[in-house]
Amino acid sequence: MNAIANRNDQATLGIVASNLLTLVVAWWQDWPLALMLWPYWCQSVIIGWFARKRILALGRFSTEGVRINDRPVDPTPQTQRSTANFFTLHYGLFHLVYFIFLLAMSAMSGEPAAAGGGTQVIEPSFDRIQRSDVLLILGLSLSFWFSHRASHREHVEADLRRVPNIGTLMFVPYLRVIPMHLTIILGMALGDDWGRLLFGALKTVADVAMHRIEHRWLQGAIAGKPQPDAIE
């Protein structure tokens, strides 16, 4: 049990460190809030990718409380595929909207330009985004990929030892979407500096909370404890 706790502590520190690294890079490069959101958007897509793989990798699972077309369903391979496909469509549409919104935010994050009558306006432009920014975003996203791939393998191994609720697994990744909602609503009003701090704090709290929840399930499975969502 101590080894499990140590791995969990190391994983938590890794989550905090990766989020702080992104925040440090954003401050170092003087990124506007829109640019800082890109590596986190990539991380959220990566989470969705591995969540779908996790659903499809389930051996046994519970469908308690899960309804399709307003009808309860049985834990069958067809239900498993339907759930994975629904999650992919719904989660994907969320992130497609975010992608379009971030493109607009990035284009509008340039310096104000003078218009007629001395009015200051922001002209849509991607000129401020440098190749180095793109490379840094890809590098941060790659680090997220490797960290979540390692967690995915551990979670799949634990899932095979228990009977998780497939509905719960489908909705857990949406915990990562909440900070984006709050940042878009509040961060823009606070400006880039406070917006970066707000998003960094919200994202780190959400990441750590989600990891703790998954680790609790994992620890119970390894210890052979009965799970609250298991089929008796």
Automatic annotation (TrEMBL):
UniProt keyword Ligase, yes or no: no
Top-rank lineage group of the source organism: Bacteria
Organism: Lysobacter yangpyeongensis
Protein name: DUF6498-containing protein
InterPro entries tied to this protein: DUF6498 (IPR045466)
Pfam (any one): DUF6498
Keywords, alphabetical: Membrane, Transmembrane, Transmembrane helix
Membrane spanning residue stretches: 12-29, 35-51, 89-109, 129-147, 168-190
Keyword hit for Transmembrane: yes
